[in-house]
Each structure stands twice: as C-alpha cells, then as structure tokens.
Specification:
Largest sheet: none
Structural class: mainly alpha
Helix content: over 70%
Strand content: under 5%
Radius of gyration: 27 Å
Oligomer: single chain
Order of helices and strands: HH
Number of strands: 0
Length: about 100
C-alpha cells in the first residue's frame, strides 16, 4: 500500500512538472507569435503606406518625414475605428416591427 501511494505521489509530481514546463513553453510560443504578427503588421502596413512615394531614407530629415507619414496613417486608422465604433453604438439595433 505504501509503495502505491509513493508511486502516485511521484506520478503526480512528474505530471505537475511537465504541465508547468509546457505552460512556460506555451507562454513563450504565444509571445513569439505575437512578435511575428507585429512585425508582419508593421511591414505590410509600411509597404501599403509608402507605395508609390519617393522616400529618402539616407538622411535624418527623410527618416523623420517617413516616421511622421507612417504614424499619421496609423493614428488615422485608430480615429476611423473610433468613428465607426461610435456610429455603430448610436444605431438602433432593436427589432424592426414592420408588417408586410
């Protein structure tokens, strides 16, 4: 009987350690996926924003101008999302009681 309890405690300890290690690995995977998604977002949005524009990346003023254009676009996106959300909240989402 004592041998069975000892094996149970060891098995539970091993499973607990395995779960903790996997949870830690899962957190690292989620962080890596988040970083990859952010890099892809910034790259694809920069390609979209700067398409067809003549940009100077060799001088400090040129880099400042690029940064201003990108963040201006980014903040306008957030402003548009805010506007759409506020308009959606103001709408009447009740059931239409019209008869046909």
């Amino acid at each position: 009987m004592a041998m069975g309890i000892t094996l149970l405690i060891i098995a539970v300890s091993i499973i607990g350690i395995y779960v903790l290690v996997e949870f830690k690995r899962f957190k690292h995977k989620m962080f890596a996926i988040f970083l990859i998604a952010m890099i892809l977002f910034f790259y694809l949005s920069a390609v979209y924003v700067f398409k067809g524009k003549d940009l100077d990346m060799k001088t400090i003023p040129g880099v400042i101008d690029i940064t201003k254009v990108y963040f201006s676009w980014l903040f306008s996106i957030f402003g548009n999302v805010k506007s759409v959300t506020s308009n959606a909240v103001k709408m009447d989402w009740g059931v239409n009681e019209s008869t046909s």
